Each structure stands twice: as structure tokens, then as C-alpha cells.
# Entry
Amino acid sequence: MTAPVERISLVVIGVGNPDRADDGIGPLVAARLGMLPGARIMSCNSDGFTLIEEWSGADIVVLIDAATTVSAPGRIHRIDLSSDELPCELGIASTHAFGIAEAVALARALDRLPRRLVIYAVEGVCFDYGADMTPEVAAAVDEVAGLVAAEAAGCLPNSMRTDAWRTDP
# Structure
């Protein structure tokens, strides 16, 4: 018999590999956040199966990850994955065959999604191993950290409250 899962109010997961340029934005934002009251903050450089395990027992999960460039490097998108699918146009950069989109689909099928699952995806252009993060993506780190902190505090700016994929510049 397995032990009951401990309920956690909020889990923030910075997804990505810090050694792959723009893919490192998730772990960098997680490190920048430090500690948030009532939250568990972590980085994850594993596959989507690990994400499902890490968010088990959480009411609200916020993921931060890099995405391929659709319009402009450094552009921030907020998507509520509790009810919406990840837009195909916004390719989340994963070095694993089983990434965030697959983890969300499997968790939804297994009824293992948290009550609320939000991703902050930042458009990147360089995912080369050993390369530096591009200036546009690095410039988004503090803004994303502020948005996640506001989300955790329940005071997200009106401009980001929509659960739809942001298309404005």
C-alpha cells in the first residue's frame, strides 16, 4: 500500500537544461524566485514522467520553460493547461521524447492533473549545448519571475489573466 500523497498548495517547476542556452530559462527563473510562502520551487531537467510525479498532490502547478520562436525571442506566453492544450505553434523546447505536452495529455487521461496547471513559455532561439543564453531570453528572466510570484500571490496583472495564448507583442 502506498502512502497518501501530501497536499501542497503550489509547486513551481523550472523545466529545462541550463547547459543548453535558452533552454535554461526555467531553472534560472526557479533559482531567481528563491522561496515563496507555501510553495515548493524546483528545477527539472528530466522527462515528462518526472513532472507528473513532482506535481502529485499539488493544487496549483506553474511550469516555466523555453519555447521555439514564433514571433520574437524573449516573448512570454502564459497558457492555462488545466483546460487548454498546448498550442502547436508554440513548440516547447524539449530534449526528451516525452515532454510537457505529452505529460499533460497523459496526466489528463489518468486524472492526475492538478486543479490548475499554468505554463510560462518564453520564446528562445538558441538551444545549443554549451552556448550562452541569448540576451532577449535573459532579459525576460526577471519579468517571468515577477509574473510567477504574482500568480502565487493571487495578484496577477490584468494583462496576463487571460488563459489564452498571448498573441500581442
Q: What stands out?
A: Strands lie at 8-15, 39-44, 58-68, 76-80, 116-124. DSSP finds five helices and five strands in the chain. The two ends are 51 Å apart (CA to CA). Residues 161-169 have pLDDT under 50 and may be disordered.
